[in-house]
Input
Amino acid sequence: MTQIPPRITALLNQKGGVGKTTSTVSIGAAIALLGRRTLLIDLDPQAHLSLHLGVDGSAVGKTVYDVLVDPDCDIRDAIVQVRDNLRLLPSTTDLAGAETELSNHEDRNRILRERFAEIGHEFDFVLIDCPPSLNMLTLNGLCLADEVLVPMQAQFLAMQGLTKLLETVQLLAGGLNPTLRIGGVVLCMHETQTSHSREVVQELSNFFDESAGSGLPWDGAKVLMPAIRRNIKLAEAPSFGQTIFDYAPWCPGAIDYRALAERFVRDWEVAHGVDPAIAGKPTPAAAAAAAAAAAAAAAAAAAAVQSSRFTPETAAAARAARLARTGSTPIVGESVVRKGPAQKPVAPATETRTSASKSAEMKSVEMKSVEMKSAEMKSAEAKKPAPRASEAKKTASLAASAPATIVEPRTATSAPARTVSAATPATSSMAPAVTAVTTSAKPKPRATHETTDARPASPVERAPVKPASASEVKSAKPAPAPQSKEPGSKELGSKELGSKELGSRQPESKPMKPAPTKTATTAVASNEPEPEPEPEPVDTSHPFRAAARQRGS
Output
């Protein structure tokens, strides 16, 4: 292969959590799988790049801190090989104090570049993970790198941060590192289904196309494709100290980073005269190693599938392992495995008989429980007390002994009347109630106190009412329904309501429907009915005048 200079790339974004460390590890691991010698430099004091690869900087000895601070430290002593074709310059939290210790150094921003010059020819690609801030460590990485890759999300705020980053690179290109330029943008945690993401990608592409030929540091930059889709496997891999190609080699994140790394290598090699037919392709050694790894993975998957498949052999092995673990003896009548074309377990007759006897016992137990429940229900019903025959008679006697009550209903169309109601026993039939109701064509005012005093008291008022006996209540017959007075008929006095001769003197009217009640009501008035007054014109303008004229006549 044609000897080409190493491609030194710094992954930088002043916004944290955009995928800088994940992109550095994944792109570097994918390049190493292609057979290219790759070096990863961790310049972040958080040491996430080292942890992602399972390296503890405090346990490996020398780190990038020693390379920057100690002039006598050899950079080769601090580099650790983590995979085939993949090496790491680890970091520790002590790196945070390097800026203070190098504050008096004359050329503190170019220390890493001077140390790397000793081993630059030993690598094909170098990736630098910069911290999310513009400090001395970031400036050391930018002075060493030839280009900057910007990992970002396709969002509006990320575009604003990119604008500030471009200004920073332009300042560095004018002083500390004149060869520094923007290589492109890596879209991380990308969501292709949202219109906002598509609009941001289109804006970035248009911006870089318009900058072509301008001579600015981002002249020739582009949006690197494919975009890295959001994938949870990329977040899980660091917890196991593995790359995404070790943890889940065929997940969407691994596929995207592998394709991005192949294009990244191809563009660099084609730009330096490598045949496009072999540019970006794995080396023969890397291809053989990849084939062997694929065969091993396929064998492991097949073994896993075979171990989970149920066969008589696996069932017997599982049974033997269970017996050995529990230390118990096999049960008499256990199924025996016979080798043959069918390979099916054969159960002896004793096991069949045992199961049949168990089912019969279960059925007998169920029948006994049903019989016991029915017997308990019958005994409970027999213990219930029989209804007493004297309850009906007691109810009738209580109803008969109840005293009669005097009710004086008042209606808008009749004068007040006194009624005597007697409650019938509960055992008697529903007899229709008889109510005497008197209506007049015109409302008649109630008599004054003079008229009330002159009226003789009725027998009901003079003598107390005796409670009716049960025999009288049974022999009582319902009274005939009273007749209501039709409009236009002669007026009747209030004393005529309780007389016995009132039935013969009432005009014919439509019978009223008896109310469905158990109370028999009779209207009682004075014994001496008042003679019927002669009809005469009555002044109805005032009710008291009409009553006075009737009394005077």
Q: What stands out?
A: The chain has 22 helices and eleven strands.
